Structure formats: structure tokens, C-alpha cells
TrEMBL record:
Organism field: Gossypium raimondii (Peruvian cotton)
Keywords (A to Z) from UniProt: Glycosyltransferase, Golgi apparatus, Signal, Signal-anchor, Transferase, Transmembrane
Pfam family, one: Exostosin_GT47
An annotated Gene Ontology molecular function: glycosyltransferase activity
Protein name: Exostosin GT47 domain-containing protein
Exostosin GT47 domain boundaries: 40-379
Amino acid sequence: MAYLTHFILLLLINLASSQQISNTESSSSTTTNPTTTEDCNNRWIYIRNLPSRFNLDLLTNCSEYPIFDDFCPYLANHGLGQKTHTKSRSWYRTDPLLLELIFHRRILEYPCLTNDPNVANAVFLPYYGAIDSLKYLYGPDVNSSFQHGIGLFDFLQSDEPGIWNRHMGHDHFLVMSRPAWDFCQPLDNDPPIWGTSFLELPEFYNVTVLVPEGRAWPWQEHAVPYPTSFHPPNLACFEAWIQRVRRSRRVSLMLFAGGGGIGASPNIRRSIRTECENANTSMTKDNTGYSQICHIVDCSNGICEHDPIRYMRPMLQATFCLQPPGDTPTRRSTFDAVTAGCIPVFFEEMSARSQYRWHLPEEKYPEFSVFIPKEEVVFKGLKILDVLMGIPRSEVRKMRESVIELIPRVMYRRHGSSLGLRTKKDAFDTAIDGALQTIKDKLNDLSEQ
Ligand SMILES: *[C@@H]1O[C@H](CO)[C@@H](O)[C@H](O)[C@H]1NC(C)=O
Ligand SMILES: *[C@@H]1O[C@H](CO)[C@@H](O)[C@H](O)[C@H]1NC(C)=O
Ligand SMILES: *[C@@H]1O[C@H](CO)[C@@H](O)[C@H](O)[C@H]1NC(C)=O
Ligand SMILES: *[C@@H]1O[C@H](CO)[C@@H](O)[C@H](O)[C@H]1NC(C)=O
């Protein structure tokens, strides 16, 4: 517990000091400051001041959910987690649940922050909504999951209500670091089945919510990449990694890093396992050019989650990385694969194409990924291997280049990174652009009505 208190104190101190830095940056008008030369027109963000019960206090319970992991170790480095090795500059044991912290820390160094809500184009709520949901999902409040968010709404209505009322919440946005499915239990489910009702509350319909996975139909949430373990601090570290990705020898044709597919019922993960087991014996190095056709990195029981070395090295050595759906359609692994320059293979549109439109433009999918409908594989005997072997080598090289070009957009660079690296738009910057545009469009639509 002592070490946890230490983390939180550090976090508080750092949050407070960077808030000051950002505020002075954004309010000063010196032309020598590189951040103020950026065009902030239509890009001003106001960070709503929330009581700590909506964010930092929630971290104090990080070890108290008996059927959920103790997430205290991953709070380090403002949510990036501990470094994988003491000497590592860019690699951390990142848990995707802490995207809310990562985002909060990063927005404090956003160059266009304003102290005046009346000039803001968007209002950010630094609420750790997914962490707050744990007490409903895995804790004592399971039977009151429809209350998730009510306290926040009450606060927004009672404390400076003018900020909400200016646009009835249409200019507000926040991050919730779990799939939207966890927050859309219908309000009339009694007893509750799964999830809280945060996204079902009319109180929050007007708010833009950033999640790692959205629902199939357009709603108030928008998907942003899961954080990977790669958080470079400067351009040199970033470029060194890109070099490594580009030069890496791809000795396996395809790789699957994950678990599942063990049971008897037909599903895509099972088909992948079966195909991999057979592929090893039926193909040889001579007729494929690969020393391994299929590589499975067994990640059952969450053993890979905070240990990126287990899967990043194999991904660097593979040409294609299979991204079958699991409990939900999306996977963090998609972004790990892109980071490793491994061409993702999707089996349903919900896994990425219909999700991450800001970060991975829909029309680019044929350039950087392969799509094989899962029904064809599971029920019609289509071999993944045949599809992938059928792609000419020259095409594969072009696809890999397209994947490498996407790396900056899916990474969350380290907070406090060098100005050189800040010139590359990362996942955070792209999410902010998307949120600002969504809010702008909404406000335009409203004013036309
Ligand atoms: C979190 O910790 C506080 C203080 O220890 C406690 O009052 C509260 O019930 C805890 N919440 C959960 C969900 O465990
Ligand atoms: C929630 O409600 C169910 C059904 O009424 C009950 O069995 C269960 O004990 C309750 N859980 C808690 C944590 O109160
Ligand atoms: C959401 O926006 C609609 C239309 O602008 C408005 O009527 C409604 O009151 C807003 N909801 C809240 C909770 O402010
Ligand atoms: C395929 O063979 C390689 C080398 O013999 C081995 O390391 C790998 O685990 C095998 N893969 C599967 C899926 O059996």
C-alpha cells in the first residue's frame, strides 16, 4: 500500500505541475514558444475541473476487486506501467485499462488548452469511467449498475452548470477504456446481466465517448486504438524502432498470438489452431521460403498481457498476424502487430474496419491488411494459408510499407516527449482531431435545426 500511495502522490504532483505548465503555455502569447505557434483556431479545449472522486481517488482501490486483476502495478509512469527493463527507453508493461490515465496525462500537454470554458471548442471530462465501472462489474455494486455515471451528471449540473448548458453537453467528451459493450446494459434489465448502463443513460447521449471498441451501429461512442507497450520518448527512439521493423527478417508466414480455440465447438480460433498444426508437417522450407509456416504464441491465461517481449519478437519475425475475434471482435493485438510491421489479417469487419475510422481510414484496408471472412474458413474449408500464400511477394512488400506508415498513428508516445517526436501525429493527437471534428459537426447540425 505504501508504494501505491507513493504512485498516487507522484501522479498528483505531476498532474498539478503539468497543468500549470500547460496553462501558462496556452495563455502566454510569446512567439518563441513552439507550442503557441500552432494554430489553435477552432481547437481550444477546456478541461473540466472534477473532484478527485471521479479520477485519482478511484486508483486507491486498485487492488480491491477480488475477481479482477490487481492493477496497482500498471499505474506507474502515468498509466504506461513499469518499463520492461530498467534500461528500456520506449517499452512499458502497459495495461489498456489505464488509457484513461494516459489520455489525462497527455491532454495536460495539449498546446491549445484554455482556462475559459466560454471560448472552448470542446470540454474534456477527466473522468476514469472504466475504472469507476469496476465496482459495478466486479465489485459490491453489481446490483446498481444503472447508477454508473449519475454522480458525475449530478456534479456537472450543480457545479457551474453553465458549462454544460452552453451546448447541452454536445461539446463534452471523455475516454472510457473498455469496450462499449460493458457500458450499455438496458436500464430495464432486472436483474442485471452484464455491464453498466452509462451509455444508455439519456443524460449522456450528447457526450462523445472514446472507447477501444464501439457498438456495431453509430452511437455516441467512437473507437480509438488500444494502447500498446511502445511509448517512445523522442524521435531517435522512434526511428530506431522503425529501422528495426523494416530490416527484420520475416521467417514465419503467419502468426497467431492469443489463447482460446481449444474447445470442441467450431470457431475461427479453433480453425486457426488446426490449420497451424497441420501446416507444420505438410510444408517445408524449400517450397515456401519461410522456415516456419505458422507460429502460435500461446497467450492463454493472460500470460502475455504485461509481457510484450513474448509476442513482439515473434511478430517482428512474421509476415502476417492473424486477428481472430475473441470474447469481443477487437483486440489490442491488432495494434501490436501494426507496431511490429506485421500485416494484420482480419476475419470480420467489426474487428477494425468499422471501428477505427479516425486512425485507420476505411479505404486503406486493402493496402495494409487482408480480409478473410470467418464463415469461409470455419464452415467452408477455405485455408488461410492458401489465401496468404497466394499474395505475390512484391505485393506483400508494398503492404508491409503501408503498415509501417501507420505506426505513428497507432502509438501513444510517452508524455513529455521531445518536440521532434511531437511533430508526428500519434494516436492521442489523431483522437483529439477526431473528437474536435465530431463535436464541430454536431454543433453545426444543431445550429441548423
Ligand atoms: C474503495 O475504497 C474506499 C476506501 O477504502 C471504500 O470506502 C470503497 O468502498 C471502496 N470501493 C470499492 C468498490 O471497493
Ligand atoms: C444482487 O442481486 C442478486 C439477485 O437479487 C443477489 O442474489 C445478489 O446477492 C446481489 N449481489 C450483491 C452483491 O448484492
Ligand atoms: C441533449 O441535447 C438535446 C438536443 O439538443 C437536448 O434537448 C437535451 O436536453 C440534451 N440532454 C441533456 C442531458 O442535456
Ligand atoms: C511448428 O514447428 C516449429 C519448429 O519445429 C515449432 O517451433 C512450432 O511450435 C510449430 N508450430 C505448431 C503450431 O505446431
